[in-house]
Amino acid sequence: MSLVILAGVAWCVGWWINSRLANSAASNTRAIKLLVPVIFGVTVLVVWELLVRGLEVSLVILPPPTMIAERFANSLPILWKDLFQTFLKGALSGYIMGCSAALLMAVAVDRSDFLRRGLLPVGNFVAALPIVGTAPILVMWFGFDWQSKAAVVVVMVFFPMLVNTVAGLRETSAMQRDLMQTYAASYWQSFFKLRLPAALPFIFNGLKISTTLALVGAIVAEFFGSPTVGMGFRISTSVGQLALDMVWAEILMAALAGSFFYGTIALVEKSLTFWHPSQRS
Amino acid sequence: MKTFLSVLTVLAAIVTFWYAACVPMNIKGVLDAAERAGAEVTPATSKARRDLGSFGLVAGNTFAIADTFAQDRPRLPAPHQVITELWKTTVMKKVTSKRSLVYHAQVTLNATLLGFVIGTGLGILLAVGIVHSRVMDMSVMPWAIVSQTIPIIALAPMIIVVLYSIGVQGILPKAIISAYLSFFPVVVGMVKGLRSPDAMQLDLLKTYSANTSQGFWKLRLPSSMPYLFTSLKIGIAASLLGAIVGELPTGAVAGLGARLLAGSYYGQTVQIWSALFAAAILAGLLVALLDLIEKLVLKRMGMGS
User: Fold this and answer.
1) Predicted pLDDT of residue A211
2) Which residues of B touch A247 (CB under 8 A)?
3) C or N terminus of chain A, fewer CB within 10 Å?
4) What is the value of pTM for the model shown?
5) Over chain B, what is the mean pLDDT?
6) B275 and B159, same structural domain?
7) What is the DSSP letter of A281?
8) What is the Cα–Cα distance from B116 to B113, expressed in whole angstroms?
9) Domain span holding position B9
């Protein structure tokens, strides 16, 4: 019981520190902006730990964070193998194939007004569908290994990427395009010097949306059949064995991989679209 | 009108491509069946056929092309097979029958809607809190943004099993997955929307000596509507995905996800495709409905285009 009270105390202390920090004069500095969410995260973890231990919650319902961390540290080799299978082989290869196919398709579609008009509504519609449902079909076609996961990822990222790129390639104003024309620029010159750079913010938006979709696709596709390695496989089998600390460790790994993937794309975006208003502030 | 024509063209191209793809995808199965039935097939043994590419098989056995569109368990069912199956399992069956797709769609839809309502409700509440409290903004908002970069759907199997082990089953576990998938997009979109009034407008309300709640109801909430509907549309698609994935790990007996899984276990490709299309139609209807509500609401508010 004392642990539960302690959890309440920890929550109040964390909140009090944060409210002092957030309402202090220095609250707009970078350090405070980073510190406040970190304190909040740590508070949540501490409260979680104390509550689980204090209320003696069964391990098959919710393991405490320390146990998850311990399991994470102890099973790094397995986690690394799963990450390699799901993230590098499945998600990343599918992501690269799907995004580049969508880019090329967008460039082709952009040359014809008729096609663009027809493809955009269809693309927008497909982007909202539960595409992950194609997973059982693709697993049937491409087998249990990473190829089927990559195929699911290709299908999932293709349309969001296509719609964003096509929208981006429309971004230049008539004035800018006229200027290129007065320079007697060829189609490809004006494409590479004007329209592609102008489309970059949109392209990166699509790329960023696709990072999450890629991981979701690769993990969910493994629920429909996989070799005995992979994050989705490990999650579904560990759930079956009620080894919830392993499930949480795998989720932590997926979260780390997802934020890392997204962060990398965001960094590249920052270096390539430094001129855009959204990056300058 | 022009848009309509071009959409039709694109759709026609997709259907044509689909039919064309059926031929090489299914030819091997058709030839195996034809050989068993005693027909003359060009490479006579199934092993020789495996070594030959699909296109070579099509070129050598043009008589079999028609059959590739009418197999029982094709690798890729033709569009009309899927449509026939959809028709058979929706209109021709009683709605209460376990074989009716309407029944399965309704099971999934219930979980989706319940989760969607919970998720968006909580999401809007949290967004209101974030906009009005600096502490909440600084502590919670970064986590809400980070959560969009990670595949939180990986939590789904665990939620189902854990809730099952404490005796909660049926619609609620699926709804919880739907709820947390729609929760974060709504929080992020709604915070953006509630912050969309510019300083000038906020200042104006201040000169009227409006208090916080008046500012919220008369300025912030109305101007957040376009953002709210955008995130609702993302949220409902995510909810449906959550409900479908939530049906996978327990081997649920009812719902579109269960149909997908059963179809993949028993190699019933036509069933998988029709479940997939049912899910797509459901998602399309839900998004279109929200679209309609958005148009009506914005029009009444004088914000419609």
Assistant:
1) 92
2) 157-158
3) C
4) 0.85
5) 85
6) yes
7) -
8) 5
9) 2-74
Q: What angle do CA A110, A116, A119 make, to 5 degrees?
A: 130
| In a domain? residue B183 | yes
> For A15, what's the count of Cα atoms within 13 Å in the CB-facing half-sphere?
9
What's chain A's average pLDDT?
A: 88
Specify the long-range contacts of residues B253-260, CB closer than 8 Å, at least 24 apart.
B254/B98, B254/B103, B254/B104, B254/B107, B255/B104, B255/B107, B255/B108, B255/B111, B255/B174, B256/A133, B256/B101, B256/B104, B256/B105, B256/B107, B256/B108, B256/B282, B257/B108, B258/B104, B259/B101, B259/B104, B260/A133, B260/A136
Mutate to test the interface with B, among A42, A131, A209, A239 (most CBs of B within 10 A): A239
B146/chain A closest Cα distance in angstroms: 7
Written as six digits, the tokens of A125 are: 């519609």
Angle (nearest 5°) at CA B151 between A142 and A153: 25
Structural domain tally of chain B?
2
Q: What is the pLDDT of residues B133-181, one digit of tens each?
A: 888 888 888 888 888 888 888 888 888 888 888 887 778 888 998 998 8
For residue range A179-237, list pLDDT tens digits in order: 999 999 999 999 999 999 999 999 999 999 899 889 988 988 888 888 888 888 898 88
For the residues A123-130, what does the mean pLDDT come to? 78
From the list B5, B151, B157, which residue is nearest A216 (CB)? Answer: B151
How many structural domains comprise chain A? 2
Residue of A nearest to B11 (CA): A122
Q: pLDDT tens digits, residue range B198-217?
A: 889 989 999 999 998 898 99
Contact at CB, A128 and B151, closer than 8 angstroms: no
Which pLDDT does position A66 carry in this prediction? 92
Q: Write out chain B residues lying below 8 Å of A48, CB-based.
A: none
| Residues A153/A95, Cβ–Cβ less than 8 Å | yes
Q: Which amino acid is at A76?
A: L
The boundaries of the domain holding residue A109 are 72-280
CB atoms within 10 A of CB B212: 10
- Say if residue A176 is in the same domain as residue A207: yes
Which two structure tokens, joined as six digits, stand for A23?
């309402």
**A219:B153 CB<8 A:** yes
User: Among residues B46, B43, B20, B21, which one has the least CA distance to residue B33?
Assistant: B46
The answer to whether residues A114 and A41 belong to one domain is: no
Report in angstroms the alpha-carbon separations of B273 from A138, B276, B279: 11, 5, 10
Check whether residue A51 and residue A129 sit in a common domain.
no
Of A21, A121, A220, Cβ closest to residue B245: A220
Three-state SS at B149: coil
Q: Which residue has the tokens 């195929």?
A: A151
Asked if the structure places residue A261 within a domain, the reply is yes
Output the domain CATH number for residue A187.
Answer: 1.10.3720.10
Q: Among the listed ranges A242-246, B112-116, B250-254, B278-282, which one has the minimum average pLDDT value?
A: B250-254
Same domain, A76 and A44: no
